Amino acid sequence: MALANAARSNSAQMFGHPRGLTYLFTTEMWERFAYYGMRAILILYLVNFLLLHPVAESVIGLAATKHLFEYLTGPLNTQQFSSMIYGTYTAFVYLTPFFGGMIADNWVGQRYSVIIGGLLMAIAEFVLMVPSLFVVGLLLLILGNGFFKPNISTQVGNLYREGDSRIDRAYSIFYVGINVGAFLSPIICGSLLGEPYGYHWGFCAAGIGMILGLVIYVNALRTLPPDRIARLRSKTDEKRPLTGEDWKAVFALVLLCIPVTFFWATYEQQGNTMNLWAQSFTDRRLIPGLLDWEIPVTLFQAFNPAMIVLFTPLVVWFWGRQAKKNTEPTTVTKMALGLFMLAVSYAIMALAAYITPAGHTTSWLWLFAFYAVITMGELYLSPIGLALVARVAPAQILSAMMGLWFITSFTGNLLQGYIGTYFTTLDKPHFFLLCTVLGAGAGVVTWIFNFPLKPILEKRGPTAQPELAEPQADPHMEPRPAG
């Protein structure tokens, strides 16, 4: 009876999509508010406060962490050590989702995993307010994100029956939710609280945001379909082994993880070296000589999510227009285009650094152009990748495959932290050209992958259905996971 009630609740529509999508959108918005609020101030917190004497000596585990990094890379200055911390943290928050997905698929279920993860992350943000517990706070965030991240994303796909053509649009809408939170958080946690009053207040705001997201999610449970593990226990979903076609789909997704890693290795410089560029190498006066108000450093972190919210409707409209003309690129081709646009964004920064005399700062408009181009690249790759996994991955291992997709961010961010150490050893034009080459090379590899992978992925694509139609099935039946 409980499962039937959940199914009936899930059949309710809002704006042409299941009502549960609105709740998941809002939950993820607040979780990303917490994550990006902390990320916006992390590198500045490290460079400007935590790693300085005598504060650094009081941080539990920090000395051991530095010894480990220096054993692997050699001596590190403050900027290089902060880059390694930033890269390692942002990497591991995307490694643990793989294991969190496996735990959800086999034991805990997606719902309880999201609640456990949300609680751990809320606690972690408040722990970060105490400088000596910084490493403990990072470890709690990494663990909590592992439970939360794959299981909130997977539940978006679970809202739709297999073959529903709305799923790509659903993930684009969900992605907007991510970026509404990511837009607000640098402003509130960074510009309004962290920079003027102390970074610990930024962590506090992030923790409050995570609590709000958790409250919304618990209230949303009645609108969400049961977890797959619940359907198995109630015998509404048969457990079957993976077929040959399933394994081909898994192989295709694993293969695409390779170039996507390099996307994140360069894209994630935004919160690391690009933050330092904005702080030390950018003329942040709004209109020099006329309106000399300086743009706060952390406000630049809001450019990318704001542009995602603005650009997403245009991109979706453009793809729809291409689809009507049968010229819409394949999913893999879109991802390759996203990598090429990422390369162009860093080429813009290389040009800005090259034409600026030593000791001078560049106009903030260069950063504006950088964020505009890299945002378009992100829209062609990131939400498309999420939808691809939800559509293609076998239902039996859907959460684990979503976690595997996030491993590209793990490997990419590890590489990102290492690349960031060259920010102080390379000339700035050469540093940005390095990022350009990495992005362009990954784009070429992805474009080549399109040819062998296209037949595999198209076999598991969505079938055409009316976009806004109610599901034409018995409302008492459980919706099947996409893919």
Task: Please describe what this structure looks like.
The chain is mainly α and 483 residues long. It has a single domain, classed as Growth Hormone, Chain: A. The chain has 17 helices and six strands. It has helices at residues 2-10, 19-50, 62-73, 78-92, 96-108, 110-127, 134-158, 167-197, 199-220, 228-233, 244-267, 273-280, 303-324, 331-355, 364-392, 398-420, 428-459; strands spanning 13-14, 17-18, 282-283, 285-287, 291-294, 362-363. A two-stranded antiparallel ribbon has the order 1-2. The longest helix has 32 residues, at 19-50. The two termini are 26 Å apart. Residues 1-11 and 462-483 have low confidence and may be disordered.
What attributes does this structure have?
483 residues; mainly alpha; two-stranded parallel sheet; disordered N terminus; two-stranded antiparallel sheet; Growth Hormone, Chain: A
Low-pLDDT stretches are 1-11, 462-483
Q: Alpha-carbon distance between the termini?
A: 26 Å
Which word captures the global form?
globular
Number of DSSP helices?
A: 17
CATH architectural grouping: Up-down Bundle
Layout of secondary structure:
Blueprint: H1 2-10, E1 13-14, E2 17-18, H2 19-50, H3 62-73, H4 78-92, H5 96-108, H6 110-127, H7 134-158, H8 167-197, H9 199-220, H10 228-233, H11 244-267, H12 273-280, E3 282-283, E4 285-287, E5 291-294, H13 303-324, H14 331-355, E6 362-363, H15 364-392, H16 398-420, H17 428-459
Parallel strand pairs: 3-6
Antiparallel strand pairs: 1-2, 4-5
